[in-house]
Each structure stands twice: as C-alpha cells, then as structure tokens.
Amino acid sequence: MISDVLVDEINEQIKFEMYSAYMYLAMSAWCAERNLSGFAHWMTMQAQEEVDHAMRFFNFLLERGGRVELQAIDAPPVDYGSPVAVMEKSLEHEKFVSSRIHHLYKLAVEEGDYPAQVMLQWFVSEQVEEEASIDEIVERMKMFGSDGAALLMVDTQLAARTPGAEEQA
Known about the structure:
By secondary structure, the chain is an all-alpha fold. Helices cover 76% and strands 0% of the residues. It has a single domain (4-159), classed as Ferritin, core subunit, four-helix bundle (Ferritin). It has helices spanning 4-33, 37-63, 83-111, 114-144, 148-159.
C-alpha cells in the first residue's frame, strides 16, 4: 500500500504535469501567432508528452490503491517576449519539474516504497533528456543571436519532431 504522504505528493505532481501541458499549449499558441509553426508544433508535442506524464502518475496511484484527487490548474502566461525567451522559460520550467521528481524520489526512499522508486526512476531519466534537449535549442538560439535565417532553420528543425522521437534540434 502506498503511503498517504506519497499519495498527496503524487496528486500534486499530476497537477504540475497538467500545468506543464497548459503552459506548452500557451507557448504553442504564442509561437503560432508569430508564424513560427515549427516552434508551435514542438510545443504542442511537448504538451501531449506532459499529459502522458500526468497519466503515468494517475495510473500509478490507481494501481497502488491510492486515491486520485485532481487539483485546480493555474492559467499559464500568454506572452513570452521572444522565441528564445519561450525556450528559456521551457528550460526553467523543466528544471523545476526535475526538482519535483527528485523530491518525490527522495520521499519514496524515505518511505521505503520500492515500486514508487522504480516508477520515479523513469522520470529521473526522462527529465535529464528533457533538460538536455531544450538546453541545446536555447544554446543554439543564443549562438545565432538575431539572425532571422538561423531562427527559420531552428523552426524547421522543430517542425520535424515526431511523437516519442528524440528532439530534432
């Protein structure tokens, strides 16, 4: 049986994962409004991935006999300033999510919950990939500066993202 402490924290994580999806959808809309269709596509794919993450936690709680209690999700920002700022905000957010996953993992260790540790290990690895992927995009964009041709190249690369595939940037 899963502890009440872990149930509460995983329910909160479901909220954070769904907020992540909302945030990425807001970013997708912002990019689409600026005709950055590759960025918009990448963000939409990222939003779906975050919903999938929330469902992993959702199903884990149900499988372990925990109670799912969905929480209110805050509205994300609607303005991001620039394409590089969008990606920097994404990276900042993924670092926050990583800190949440690490907190959950530490709690699972303290609770002696081996199934939770195994499940969370997948998320630990996933977050390393998420941060590295977005960091690479941010660093390329910073290197190119305000070069419009380079921005279009990155936009084209981001448009090539497919479900479950490694990022193309």
